[in-house]
Amino acid sequence: MTRLALQLDLQLFAGEKTEAATPKKRQEAREKGQVAKSMELPAAFILFFSFLGFYLFGGYMKQEVVQMFKQVYNDYLLWDLTEGSTSLFFNMLMLYTLKILAPIFLITVVIAILGNYLQIGFLLTGKPLAPQFSKLNPIEGAKKIFSFRTLVDFLKSVLKMSVIGVVVFTTLWDQKNSIMDLARLPLESTFAFTSSLTLMLGIKIGLVLIVISIFDYIYQRFEYEKSLRMSKQDIKDEYKKTEGDPLIKGKIREKQRRMALQRMMQEVPKADVVITNPTHFAVALKYDAQQMQAPAVIAKGTDYIALKIKDLAKQNGIVIMENKPLARALYAQVEIGDSIPADLFQAVAEILAYVYKIKGKAN
């Protein structure tokens, strides 16, 4: 009973997702569009750099606006109201609008691309856009509403609004005297002060949101790694799918060894000589002066296989010679089908000469 309870406990432990995700699991998740990404980070950067763009290109934008109004009041208002003049007038307005907003558009696009690229790199997949009917399940929807992630998102929104409120309040409070004096200032000064205050607020809020979004990215990264965790059983199953079942692979290797052994044994009757240890090693050599530059090993083995090689050699009338050092050297240094090395050629040549002499092949 105790052993059964222990086995059940180990099985439960094996099902816990405590292991880091494998590269294959990460790649599959990435292909599905599941990546560690914070939507707050690009938005915060866009807000900050957009207001910074207004600050940097404010002079250029002001000049273009003034030029546009000059052209409207000096030229276009004096034209006759016709279809052609109206079309030209609106084309001019569109052109000036694009020129004024072009720097901000360019900054927004570049920052949006960089904000996503720095988080996840280059990723192009349409799987997240595919319809998933499981999302229509009201039970799953209710679980998401009352999930820990939803609570974190709510607290994050409250934190952002609170921090932004504090930043706006402190900034306006520092400028309260200047705000009270706006009633006595000309319209141009009022507009300049309002623009400056708006840019200041935008840059401050952007910086605050960037800091918050960095912490949000760290949290999203943590949640992503947590969601990818695998159990020990998951890792074993993945290994079986990619590498194959170890039992099946073992059977395949065993079958391959048997086939290789069978092919090797079929070559033994073609040998000129079998050199033995005499019991532990057996190496079959073949030499054809017309086709080979040096003798080659066509079969070799130890113990049981060595006995099989010697039995086949006896059955086919192959000469068996005992030479312990040479048998060991050939077995260790030469693979099946390879020629013998130069340092063993003299010893093998003497044995082959003796074999040819016995068979009456020597001149």
Automatic annotation (TrEMBL):
The keyword Protein transport applies. InterPro entries: FlhB (IPR006136), T3SS_substrate_exporter (IPR006135), T3SS_substrate_exporter_C (IPR029025). The keyword Chaperone does not apply. The chain crosses the membrane at residues 44-61, 100-125, 154-173, 193-219. It comes from the Bacteria. It is found in: Cell membrane. It is a multi-pass membrane protein. GO terms for cellular component: plasma membrane. Keywords: Bacterial flagellum biogenesis, Bacterial flagellum protein export, Cell membrane, Cell projection, Cilium, Flagellum, Membrane, Protein transport, Transmembrane, Transmembrane helix, Transport. GO terms for biological process: bacterial-type flagellum assembly; protein secretion. Required for formation of the rod structure in the basal body of the flagellar apparatus. Together with FliI and FliH, may constitute the export apparatus of flagellin. Belongs to the type III secretion exporter family. This is Flagellar biosynthetic protein FlhB. It comes from Paenibacillus thalictri. The lineage of its organism: Bacteria, Bacillati, Bacillota, Bacilli, Bacillales.
